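User: Please predict the structure of the protein below. I'd like the answer in structure-token form so I can feed it into my own downstream comparison script.

Assistant: Understood. Taking the following sequence of 122 residues as input:
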Amino acid sequence: MAITYTIVPEGRLLKVHASGEDESLEEVLAYGKAIIEAALENRSGMILCDERKLKYRLTVFDTFDLAEQAVAYVSSLVKIALVCSKENVSDGKFFETVTQNRGLMVKVTTDMEEAVAWLGSD
């Protein structure tokens, strides 16, 4: 099952709800590109992705490549919080580490309240 998602702008916050499973790096890149384009169009400074119903299937190498490409497309001025399921948290944390090491403000957690609080902090 492919990734399905909705993107809803709420002021400077862009809310994303995703489900399904990532079947390829290309599919995840297209998903990420749609989010980035919506953030730019709506001048969103914060992105909250609810991915608790999304199954991560990328390899470690693909996750690393995804993080590298995300850095190339996303401004360091945008804060991104990803809320994932417990079974995906180690992959999510790896993505967080790679992107943070390259200057992006990314937080991966399994707790929605923690993600929202982090987005609101300076």
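That's the full token string. Strands lie at 4-10, 13-21, 46-55, 79-84, 105-109.
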